[in-house]
Amino acid sequence: MLLADAAQVADGKLYILGGGWSLTGPEPTPSAVAIKLQVDWHETNVDHHWELFLEDADGQPVLIPTPEGDQPVEIRGDLSVGLPEGIIEGTPVDVPMAINLGPLPLQPGTRFTWRFLVDGQDLAGGSLSFSTRPAQVI
After folding, report:
1. What Pfam families does the annotation carry (predicted)?
2. What domains can you pick out in the chain, each with its CATH number?
Protein backbone atom coordinates (compact mmCIF):
# COMPACT_ATOMS: atom_id res chain seq x y z
CA MET A 1 0.00 0.00 0.00
CA LEU A 2 1.13 3.52 -0.77
CA LEU A 3 -0.43 6.94 -0.20
CA ALA A 4 -0.40 9.25 -3.21
CA ASP A 5 -1.89 12.43 -4.58
CA ALA A 6 -3.52 10.36 -7.37
CA ALA A 7 -3.23 6.88 -8.86
CA GLN A 8 -4.63 4.83 -11.70
CA VAL A 9 -4.40 1.32 -13.07
CA ALA A 10 -3.65 0.75 -16.77
CA ASP A 11 -2.33 -2.35 -18.53
CA GLY A 12 -1.99 -4.17 -15.22
CA LYS A 13 0.28 -1.52 -13.73
CA LEU A 14 -0.11 1.19 -11.09
CA TYR A 15 0.58 4.75 -12.23
CA ILE A 16 1.19 6.96 -9.21
CA LEU A 17 1.40 10.75 -8.94
CA GLY A 18 2.91 12.26 -5.79
CA GLY A 19 3.32 8.92 -4.05
CA GLY A 20 4.91 7.94 -0.78
CA TRP A 21 3.80 10.65 1.62
CA SER A 22 2.74 10.24 5.27
CA LEU A 23 1.97 13.86 6.19
CA THR A 24 -0.82 15.96 4.70
CA GLY A 25 -3.07 18.93 5.36
CA PRO A 26 -4.15 20.51 7.50
CA GLU A 27 -6.61 21.53 4.76
CA PRO A 28 -8.57 18.75 2.99
CA THR A 29 -6.89 17.63 -0.23
CA PRO A 30 -7.57 14.83 -2.71
CA SER A 31 -5.58 11.66 -2.17
CA ALA A 32 -5.30 8.06 -3.30
CA VAL A 33 -4.47 4.68 -1.83
CA ALA A 34 -2.46 2.55 -4.27
CA ILE A 35 -2.50 -1.17 -3.54
CA LYS A 36 -0.70 -4.08 -5.17
CA LEU A 37 -2.46 -7.24 -4.07
CA GLN A 38 -1.05 -10.69 -4.83
CA VAL A 39 -3.65 -13.42 -5.21
CA ASP A 40 -2.31 -16.92 -4.57
CA TRP A 41 -2.55 -19.40 -7.44
CA HIS A 42 -5.16 -21.50 -5.60
CA GLU A 43 -7.27 -18.37 -4.90
CA THR A 44 -7.71 -17.46 -8.59
CA ASN A 45 -11.14 -17.85 -10.18
CA VAL A 46 -12.64 -17.38 -6.71
CA ASP A 47 -14.80 -14.40 -5.67
CA HIS A 48 -13.16 -12.21 -3.01
CA HIS A 49 -14.55 -9.24 -1.08
CA TRP A 50 -12.26 -6.37 -0.06
CA GLU A 51 -12.73 -3.47 2.34
CA LEU A 52 -10.72 -0.32 3.03
CA PHE A 53 -11.39 1.53 6.29
CA LEU A 54 -10.03 4.80 7.69
CA GLU A 55 -9.44 4.67 11.44
CA ASP A 56 -8.22 7.19 14.01
CA ALA A 57 -5.26 6.64 16.34
CA ASP A 58 -7.53 4.68 18.72
CA GLY A 59 -8.64 2.27 15.98
CA GLN A 60 -12.11 3.83 15.76
CA PRO A 61 -13.81 4.54 12.42
CA VAL A 62 -13.30 8.09 11.12
CA LEU A 63 -16.68 9.75 10.56
CA ILE A 64 -17.26 12.53 8.05
CA PRO A 65 -20.38 14.64 7.57
CA THR A 66 -22.66 13.67 4.67
CA PRO A 67 -26.22 14.67 3.68
CA GLU A 68 -27.33 11.44 5.43
CA GLY A 69 -25.46 12.34 8.64
CA ASP A 70 -21.99 11.36 9.81
CA GLN A 71 -20.71 8.28 7.99
CA PRO A 72 -17.53 6.19 8.34
CA VAL A 73 -14.91 6.48 5.59
CA GLU A 74 -14.99 3.03 4.03
CA ILE A 75 -14.79 1.62 0.53
CA ARG A 76 -15.77 -1.92 -0.45
CA GLY A 77 -15.63 -4.02 -3.55
CA ASP A 78 -15.41 -7.48 -5.01
CA LEU A 79 -12.83 -9.08 -7.24
CA SER A 80 -12.19 -12.35 -9.00
CA VAL A 81 -8.86 -12.96 -10.65
CA GLY A 82 -8.41 -15.30 -13.58
CA LEU A 83 -5.16 -16.96 -14.52
CA PRO A 84 -3.25 -14.99 -17.14
CA GLU A 85 -2.20 -16.98 -20.18
CA GLY A 86 1.32 -18.39 -19.96
CA ILE A 87 1.74 -17.94 -16.20
CA ILE A 88 3.85 -20.61 -14.48
CA GLU A 89 1.81 -22.87 -12.19
CA GLY A 90 1.97 -21.73 -8.57
CA THR A 91 2.80 -18.11 -9.41
CA PRO A 92 0.73 -15.51 -7.52
CA VAL A 93 -1.24 -13.10 -9.71
CA ASP A 94 -0.73 -9.35 -9.24
CA VAL A 95 -3.85 -7.22 -8.81
CA PRO A 96 -3.12 -3.46 -8.86
CA MET A 97 -5.78 -1.23 -7.29
CA ALA A 98 -6.06 2.57 -7.28
CA ILE A 99 -8.59 4.11 -4.91
CA ASN A 100 -8.88 7.86 -5.46
CA LEU A 101 -10.57 9.99 -2.83
CA GLY A 102 -11.88 13.51 -2.84
CA PRO A 103 -10.82 15.94 -0.12
CA LEU A 104 -11.65 14.46 3.28
CA PRO A 105 -12.30 16.86 6.19
CA LEU A 106 -9.81 15.27 8.60
CA GLN A 107 -8.98 16.75 12.00
CA PRO A 108 -5.66 18.65 11.92
CA GLY A 109 -2.79 17.39 14.09
CA THR A 110 -4.12 13.82 14.15
CA ARG A 111 -2.86 10.35 13.21
CA PHE A 112 -4.91 8.08 10.92
CA THR A 113 -4.60 4.56 9.50
CA TRP A 114 -6.02 2.99 6.36
CA ARG A 115 -6.79 -0.69 6.96
CA PHE A 116 -7.27 -3.09 4.03
CA LEU A 117 -9.04 -6.43 4.46
CA VAL A 118 -9.72 -9.23 1.99
CA ASP A 119 -12.48 -11.69 2.85
CA GLY A 120 -12.56 -10.17 6.34
CA GLN A 121 -8.88 -10.95 6.97
CA ASP A 122 -6.06 -8.53 7.73
CA LEU A 123 -3.17 -8.88 5.30
CA ALA A 124 0.55 -8.44 5.89
CA GLY A 125 1.25 -4.87 4.79
CA GLY A 126 -2.49 -4.16 4.83
CA SER A 127 -2.34 -1.01 6.93
CA LEU A 128 -0.88 2.39 6.24
CA SER A 129 -0.69 5.32 8.68
CA PHE A 130 -0.38 9.04 8.09
CA SER A 131 -0.76 12.30 10.00
CA THR A 132 -2.35 15.66 9.34
CA ARG A 133 -0.38 18.82 10.06
CA PRO A 134 -1.57 20.98 12.97
CA ALA A 135 -3.89 23.86 12.05
CA GLN A 136 -2.20 27.21 11.43
CA VAL A 137 -3.02 29.81 14.08
CA ILE A 138 -3.31 33.30 12.65
Report:
1. DUF6941 (PF22091)
2. 2-132 (2.60.40.2560)
